[in-house]
Amino acid sequence: MYRPYHPPADPLVVRDLTQQQNDLRQRVQLMPLPAAPRLIAGCDSSFPTPDTILSVFVVLTFPELQLVEKIYHHDTVTLPYVPGFLAFREAPNLLRVYEKLQHKPDVIMVDGHGIAHPRRMGIATQLGVLLDVPTFGVAKQKLTGNYEEPGLEKGSITPLTDKSGELIGQVLRSKDKIKPLFVSPGHRCDQATAMQLTLACLRGYKLPEPTRLADYWAEQFKKEIR
């Protein structure tokens, strides 16, 4: 992901964004899905330039994982990158893509964190609260928390905990001998469901199919905007 250098954020901006996250956190619900999903979406955002964002949604059948829809939205961004507040750069554009979807998913897998965030408000959680739909995050790097490295074989899992020992996610080896993924619930989803769906969406690659295909189509759509 492209993260250009920016000068330190305005303390007043940070205070305002922190308050917004704290307010949104009050609306987070962690629970199992009421039924097995029939459609699962993957979404991802990238920044082709420092001032533009391209967000993608793909929708797949579940459990077959057949692609039924792919769509994107390209726009400008006004908020500079501020560590811990990336969701405020990504969420507005993701909401615009979601509005375009003809097939609304039962659950969304987000390329990023859910509650595995210093204020429990990663992009998966923030997007889920704003849409009030089930979401969870599958991230490629740790943002916060402590964990022991999972075993080297595919399917090995270890807990991701905060400094008080509270479970905020799980660390998954999605393919033999590669760097692990960080799976955490976002909103209207729980940890067990997030991990179960992640495992069910693995098809021999490091990334599960919803976010892998979102990333793939992001690269394809970038060719359309050049």
Automatic annotation (TrEMBL):
The keyword Cell cycle does not apply. It catalyses: Endonucleolytic cleavage at apurinic or apyrimidinic sites to products with a 5'-phosphate. Keywords: Cytoplasm, DNA damage, DNA repair, Endonuclease, Hydrolase, Magnesium, Metal-binding, Nuclease. Pfam families: Endonuclease_5 (PF04493). Its EC number is 3.1.21.7. NCBIfam families: PRK11617.1. Belongs to the endonuclease V family. The lineage of its organism: Bacteria, Pseudomonadati, Bacteroidota, Cytophagia, Cytophagales. Coiled coil: none annotated. It is found in: Cytoplasm. It comes from the Bacteria. CDD domains: Endonuclease_V. Mg(2+) binds at residues 44, 111. The gene is nfi. Its cofactor is Mg(2+). This is Endonuclease V. The keyword NAD does not apply. Its main location: cytoplasm. DNA repair enzyme involved in the repair of deaminated bases. Selectively cleaves double-stranded DNA at the second phosphodiester bond 3' to a deoxyinosine leaving behind the intact lesion on the nicked DNA.
